[in-house]
Amino acid sequence: MLRPGVLQRYWDWLDLPEHTVRLSLSEGSTPLIPMPRLAKDLGGGFDLYVKYEGLNPTGSFKDRGLVAAVGEAVGRGARTVICASTGNTAASSAAYAARAGVRAVVLVPEGKIALGKLAGALAYGATVVQIQGSFDHALALVREATQRYPIALVNSINPYRLQGQKTAAFEIVDALGRAPDWLAIPVGNAGNITAYWMGFKQYHAAKGSGLPQLLGVQAQGAAPLVLGHPVEHPETVATAIRIGRPARGEEALAAARESGGRIIAVPDDAILAMQRALAREGVWVEPASAAGLAGLAAEIETGRLDPRGKTIVAVVTGHGLKDPDIILRQAVDLPSIPPRLDALHPYLLAD
Ligand code: AN7
Question: H or E segment at 207?
């Protein structure tokens, strides 16, 4: 294989059944991109990298988990996989189901999923069902359906998802030579932060690579892990993490605590401001993906986190192309001119 996927690269480190079909779309191997300007804007004196997970085959980190969960399900004979999704899991499960030649059914909250994700799920041939409710309603329905029908559940309550997703922690340590001091990461259903912690701990036990402090970040309108109770009507511009009842919430809180870190919440305007700041340095991510960095910025600005001398990695979880609407809605009044140089003139010398 020209470029092996995560199951090929890390098979011996993954707790997956032998029957797992070793699918690949060459997922993983995403870059750690240095962000010197952003680090300077945040006060400087530390090394900041983003783990650009938007460069996975379907545009989000979900591919690491779905390659494992779909491969396992297909290996034990499943012909249909199902998930509830705010969008990225939908597109990813659809792609790996297509790859394996099985059906994908995806349940999405009606009207609350970004365009690129919906289009992706449809392009890969999934059966897309809109649910009149939130992600949490959709997940409850998926749990019920998989108890009654011979269909494999591939949400992150499926343990094989986390096995695949922890490979991102391995890649960070392999790239840096050790674990970073802090890992900032958005939190929705709380599977990813849980998976990273598993990965860092496993590598540390085997290689003494150290452990990061975890900064998990939710959106303020969907912050059950900060509030300490479920949120009935989660609301945020970061639709990917518009989740009020995270399936792995307890594990995420335990991981943050064990690491000496914490889970915090940031307002939508801080998320969008960080999305713009990242794009101005050449890295366009979807809003939810900017939440981790927005949280990091808030912690540094208020003095709760001293970054000096530290190596900090922020996981940016999905590509900006997933959610073009959010940018276009803010791009008011684009000029329109006749095709003449005099009409173009005022735009050429503007700063
Ligand atoms: C871009 O696709 O829950 O805390 O159904 O798409 O592991 O849930 C997506 C979650 C962060 C949060 N960033 O990760 C889904 C879904 C992006 C995401 C998260 C999601 P978890």
Answer: helix 191-207
- Going from the Cα of 254 to the center of ligand 1, the distance in angstroms, rounded, reads 19
- CATH 3.40.50.1100 range(s) for the chain read 6-59+161-328, 62-158
- Say what the pTM is: 0.97
Q: How much distance in Å is there from the Cα of 88 to the middle of ligand 1? A: 7
Which ligand 1 atom minimizes the distance to the CA of 155? 5
**109 beta partners:** 131
Phi, psi dihedral angles at 194 (to 5 degrees):
-65, -40
For residue 53, give the ligand 1 atom closest to its CA.
Answer: 1
Q: What is the pLDDT of residue 329?
A: 87
Q: What value does the mean pLDDT take over residues 147-160?
A: 97
Q: Which of 53, 56, 128, 241 to mutate to test the pocket of ligand 1 (most atoms within 8 A of CB)?
A: 241
Cβ atoms of 327 and 66 within 8 Å: the answer is: no
Contacts with 39 (C-beta within 8 Å, 6 or more apart), sequence order? 46, 47, 48, 307
Range of weakest confidence among 22-36, 211-225, 314-328, 337-351: 337-351
Q: Is the pLDDT of residue 74 over 90?
A: yes
Cβ(131)–Cβ(138) below 8 Å = yes
Cα of 335 from ligand 1 centre, angstroms: 36
Q: Which CATH class is domain 6-59+161-328?
A: alpha beta
> Could you tell me which CATH class the domain 62-158 is placed in?
alpha beta
